[in-house]
Amino acid sequence: MKRILQALLLLLISSCSSYQAESEEESPVSTSPVPVTLKVRSNSPESLSYPISVFIFHKNGQLIHQSEIQSASTPFKVQLSPGEYRLSAFSGLNSEQYERPKEPSATSVITPVNHAPNPTPLQHGQSSFILEKKTELSIHLAYIVSSLEFKFHQIPEDATEVKVGISPVSKGYSFDGTYTNDKQSYTLSCKRIEDSWEAGPVYTFPSSHAQTTLTLYIQRPSGTETLSYTYQYQLQPAQPYRFSGTYQGSFDLSGIFEIEGWKPGIDVEFDFVENGKENPLEPEGPTEEDSSIAYADHLPIQGEFWNDFYVWKAEPINGYAVKATLISPQQWFNVLASEGQDLLSSYKVNGYTNWRVFTKEEARSFYSDYGNQLPQLNQQLRSHGQDEFYFYEGERYLCDECRYTFNLYGNMSIRKAGEKTKYYLRGIKTLIVKKR
């Protein structure tokens, strides 16, 4: 009887131990704060304006944390509870030039002071992340404004004041990376410098509209004279423009200029015409012998779809032609470097052939343009039934005639392609499109 009681006691103790272990397995996940660190990058590190403003939002849009990085040597570290967050960082967000709520939400809007173009450019980068353990973030800051300069020649000698209006532009920019209210207009005062009237450089949030209108107001003893010019393209972020107008003359667009950290600049020379009427010239033909040529009723617009192709770049040649870089709707998986060129040489879609891979320079440029915007780009591609870019696990794409590869997530790197390793393959095509 005693032995039976001892056996029952051991069984009871064993049962209790088993229950305790099961309880430990089902215990809730720890909510203890987790460290987050941040590295900030830019195409031109010297262009970063400190302090850098950092905002962290919960996935529901509520502000969780805001602080400033005072210098390039100042480390950023914060403790957050596990969860889903979006980090948004700005360079140049000073209260003298830009207005924002003291405690913004993810959809709050940043606007220029006095609703006018700014003398200070603004850079932005963001990253969404799921926090479960110690996390190191790395974000790329890029310009989210257009740079504008104006220079007007042959203005009548009796002019006492010259102003230039530009429209449409966006009123503001939200913390989650969206331009808002893009039907605004600005007016700038010009200064007389020797034989010309000049304004800028100033910086403005671009608009999504396909055309940009410039209006010149010349104050003369007889009254205000109003002239206008329509630039046939939308303004682009990170793009510098130099508009040079004459009282008489002809429209032309030529040349580029370089500003560190910005895209190659666009020089626009044109003639203002009274009453908003323009005297269009015949477009000049493309000069690049190795580019395909197409004719269309509507010119491609950067960041939109044209003939079922996503337009990565649309660089103006003149008022009637653009040099467009298109992304192939299809991509290939598990491709050897030796197979890539043959796959693209036989690829034909909507009648277009001669597809190729990114060059090294184009790979860097594509990463700069979309490194922080790939989810949004993929959503656009999916909505048109096209393959999305993969970047979630460090996938690598072939580039430079399939001799090298690049990645689209984290710190971008270009590496020599291995002979036996399989990669992703995506085609692009450069095309000159002329308006019919």
Characterization of this structure:
By secondary structure, the chain is mainly beta. It folds into three domains: 34-143, Sandwich (Immunoglobulin-like); 146-274, Immunoglobulin-like (Sandwich), CATH 2.60.40; 292-435. Helices cover 12% and strands 44% of the residues. The protein has four helices and 30 strands. It has helices at 2-25, 337-345, 360-370, 374-383; strands at residues 34-42, 52-58, 63-69, 76-80, 83-91, 98-99, 109-112, 123-131, 135-143, 146-153, 161-169, 172-174, 179-180, 184-189, 191-193, 196-204, 212-220, 223-231, 240-246, 252-253, 266-271, 273-274, 292-296, 305-306, 309-318, 321-336, 396-399, 404-407, 414-416, 422-435. The strands form six sheets. It has a seven-stranded mixed sheet, with no helix packed on it. Strand 24 and strand 25 (309-318) form a beta hairpin. The chain starts with a helix and ends with a strand.
Task: Describe what is shown at a glance.
This protein is mainly beta. 12% of the residues lie in helices and 44% in strands.
Q: State which percent range the strand residues make up.
A: 35-45%
Helix content: 10-25%
Q: Structural class of the secondary structure composition?
A: mainly beta
So how many helices? Answer: 4
Task: Please give the number of β-strands.
Answer: 30
* Number of domain modules: 3
Shape category: flat
- The rounded distance between the terminal residues' Cα atoms is 105 Å
Q: What is the averaged pLDDT score?
A: 81
How would you characterize the largest beta sheet? 7 strands, mixed
What is the CA-atom radius of gyration, in angstroms?
Answer: 28 Å
